[in-house]
Automatic annotation (TrEMBL):
Residues 1-23 are annotated as: Disordered. Residues 14-23 have a biased composition (Acidic residues). This is Uncharacterized protein. Residues 1-13 have a biased composition (Low complexity). It comes from the Eukaryota.
Amino acid sequence: MKAIWASSGLSSSDADESGNQLEDEEEILHELHRYDTLLYKRQEITAENLNIMKQTLLQVENTVSDQQNKKLIAEPREEEIAKTIRSFKTEKSPWADGMTTEVLGELWREAKQDVLDFVQFFWETEHLSWK
């Protein structure tokens, strides 16, 4: 957090705009939020602002490894989809037709291909039609 704070262009001594010492993480987060709000409300992006944003992003560590990222962006497999459907709460209907997840589970053999086609279509197009 200190690296982000320092790259924000604010005081590196953990002080707010008035020079008041910030004592805890909540105060620091509040001041960072205030700074970001001011930064992103500006009408135009100046070279200085862009540089601050770039420097801030460089300070953020990767939290997802390349291997984890590959798994996250991979097309969902049949086993993952089936496992997800089985994990739905019982006696609940996530759809407007009132069909509970138990019904889908019971009809999985018959409905599987339609569900897989639906998920694949959504995955490829990022479009979800409710009609």
